[in-house]
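Collaborator request, handled under Task 6.
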Amino acid sequence: MKFNKYNNSYNIIGSNIKNYRIYNHYTQNELFEKLTIYGLNLYHSNIYLIEQ
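Structure tokens returned to the collaborator:
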């Protein structure tokens, strides 16, 4: 699998999710609850891993 860098970062979506979560004053668990409403089954531990 090939990984591409964008602005010296490999994980673009993780920083976007974290910025969105902080901007809206959500905890990782609250974001998890919001995502389950839309059918996305990501646990707060998965959100943590994506953000890192």
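The cover message to the collaborator said: "The mean pLDDT is 80. The two ends are 20 Å apart (CA to CA). Please let us know whether this matches your experimental observations."
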